[in-house]
Amino acid sequence: MFRSPSDIHFGFNCLAIAALSTESRLLADGFMTTHFHALLQTSSLKEVMYRARNAYSRYFNTKYSRSGRLGEKKYFSMEIDGFNHSIAAINYVLRQGLHHGLATTPFEYPYCSVNSYFRHELGKTITPPLIPKRNRHKYLPSNIRLPLEYRMSADGQLLREDILDVAWVEQNYVSPRSFLLNMNRIADATDLLKQQKENNLPPVTLESIETGVPNFALKEAQAFERERGIRNNMTDLELCAYIDSVLIPKIANNSQSVSIYTVPESKRAELCDWIWRKYNDVKWKKIPGRFFSNKNVTEAQLHRCLAYYHRMP
Predict the structure, then answer these.
(1) What torsion do the CA atoms of 307, 223, 83, 192 make, to the nearest 10 degrees?
(2) How confident is the model at residue 289 (pLDDT cuts 50, 70, 90)?
(3) What is the pTM of this model?
(4) Partners of 153 in the beta sheet?
(5) Burial readout 214-231 (b: 16 or more C-beta within 10 A, e: otherwise)
(6) Which residues are 25's β-sheet partners?
(7) Chain centroid offset of residue 302 CA
(8) Of the candidates 272, 281, 277, the residue with the CA atom closest to the CA atom of residue 300
(9) How far apart are the two ends of the chain, measured CA to CA in Å?
(10) How much is the CA Rg of the chain, to the nearest whole Å?
């Protein structure tokens, strides 16, 4: 769903605008390349999701010369009610980078709202360079007018601290030290019991909040939480960047309309085979500067980034 950082920035903007236009409150978010999580206070969940996904799909399809629905037809939702349920849900959303092996701490992962809370107390008050208000439309869905008080960073993303209900989240954590503790501790049976005593809703767990995520591996995510996972994995964004900026231009012959989605399936199969052979070629990987020299790539990841879904020979 997201092949580059700019895609994620636009995706967040779509979510933010959908929340604002439906008078919903966005509390926390976490974006992965294959999905995103959002915690909202809303009476219009269906409308929020439709607006966010529809606007982003139009952007993605236009950018990559693609057509059709983007992502699964349905989305997963879970009702959250009560203090312990809320804390558990926010914790899991903010720790997405950690669960998926993309960061060693939640604060290292840039595509979530974890660094938006207790900014003063945690020394994160520096405002990034901003885009002039007259240029914001380039990074927003069409026909969108935002209040002037909303700011946008130079990378084209609305500032989370302007959009999120930061005060509500901070009030739930009470103090920055409590927030840091929750970002660094692993949920246990005691946390689960507190949720169960609170009400009759299903408890929020790592497994339940990832319901519907393709190929989610619970044991692997738990290993990443305990810092036992492989830390030298290539990210989807890195692999997509290599495909889109290095391999695709060689195929395109300077054509602006070529993307991985317009490349014939037979050619994608050739690319898949070539990358996989090079990745497994020990001699090739030892040459300094080679793209795969020090990174781990999985078969499923290669298929995702090539939009190619056939099993390797």
Answers:
(1) 120
(2) low
(3) 0.92
(4) 130
(5) eebeeebbeebbeeebee
(6) 41
(7) 18
(8) 272
(9) 26
(10) 21
